[in-house]
Fold this sequence. Notes:
By secondary structure, the protein is mainly α. About 60% of the residues lie in helices and about 10% in strands. The longest helix has 30 residues, at about 155-185.
Amino acid sequence: MSHPHAHNHHHGHDHAMPGNYGRAFAIGIALNVAFVVVEACYGWVTGSLALLADAAHNLSDVGGLLLAWAAFAAARLKPSDSKTYGWRRGSILASFINAVILLVAMGSLGWEAIQRFTNPAPIAAGTVMIVAAIGVVINAVTAALFMGGPENDLNIRGAFLHMAADALVSVGVVIAGALYLWQGWTWIDPLASLMIALVVIIGTWSLFRQSLHLLFDGVPEHIKLPEVRDCLQSIDGVVSVHDLHVWAMSTAEPALTAHLVVCGERGTEAMLHEAQRLLHQRFGIEHVTLQIEAEACTAACATTPAS
């Protein structure tokens, strides 16, 4: 016998994103746009591929920050009759686009660096070091703006990782400039830019993979489906669980739907309440929709295998 669709939906919209991230994005973007202009100009004037690489990297991060900010704003737009989830999926799409842009940019940069090995050019290393050192400060300040963000939000984490990686990359450019001044190695500049490209590609790959996974309604990485199933089946009165789905509505909001086959005297309201509490506590799932199906309580009930 099927119950008339016991339905329990719990909302928690603003738990994931404190409002101050809007300001963090604005400051981060302004600082980085200004620095990209300076760094690109000096990279061009000094003939440093590493500086140009760092500028390209920073520019792609400005794009990433803009995308993440747009996604952050989109996630706050109210659902409508035509878009019942609102624009939450925008944050996942932003993470994906950001990753693709970075991978393409670094691929082309790596190619340029390989060309430069066969045709090395002198660089104004002192200027390179000063500009890169400014980059270290700016990137570190921007990274600090996004520190302590919700650990399960891909966008905020992506913004933080990008900026932290940028600070390290700029440190690398400073070191390359110092080595050039000390030893006069012309190959150090293309080598530094190649290493920057590698660092970024490695760092971006997991963002690319995870955002693609979420785009196809994959289970968020921090949630293990067998554990969710066991958790629901452990509830007193629940015989089995089927049609269990967990997906991400946005980079910060997992959702769940499931059918619970129940048996026994316990009230469905109590079961729904317990299921909701457990899913929130153990997995951070706020959006829960459960359908209760009552099974005729016979001897078969006790032997029904858990699906």
